[in-house]
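In this supplementary section we document a worked example of the pipeline. Step one takes a protein sequence of length 170 as its only input; no multiple sequence alignment statistics are reported here. Step two produces a three-dimensional model, which step three serialises into C-alpha cells for compact storage. The input and output of this example are shown verbatim.
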Amino acid sequence: MRRVPRGEAFVRSGELTNELGYVEDGLFKLHGKDSHGKPFVVEFTTPGEFVSDYAALVQGIPARLTIEALEDSLISSLSFTDYQALIKTHPGLHEVARNLLEALVVKLSEREFHFLTMGAKERYLEFAARRQDILGRITRNDVAAYLGISPESLSRLKAQILRERRPQRL
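The serialised model returned by step three reads:
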C-alpha cells in the first residue's frame, strides 16, 4: 500500500507507466489538457475503484492522463505486467478481469452517451445525483472541467437551477 499525498500524482501524463491502482482511501482525479491547453477531467475515483490510464497500459505508450490525489490517499498497486501474468496463470481471474473491463466500458459508454445526448444542465444534474459522495470535496473548476464547460458557465447554470427550484411568489 502506498500513500499519495494531496496534490501528488499516482501517474503523470507523458510518462511511461506500468501501474494499475486500487483506491483504498481518498479521492483521485483523472485529468489532462486538450490541444488548446483547456483542462478536462475524465473521472473521479474513490475507495473500492481501480484507477489507471488503462488504454496507455494496454498500448504500452506514455500516459495520456494525470491521476492526481485530491485528498491524502492510500492506493494499492500492481504492475500491469504482473496483472497480465496473474490472469494467465490463474484462470479464475479471467472472470474478475472481464468484470473490471465490462464496468470500465459501461462507465465510459455512459459518459460518452451523456455528452452526446444531454445539455450541460442535464449533465450537471446527473453528475450531482450520481456523485453526491464527492460533490462537496471537489472544486468548481474540476466539476466544470468534468462537464466540459467553463467555471463561469457552471456558476450561471447553478444559479438558473436555484431560480427554477425557488417557489414562485404571487
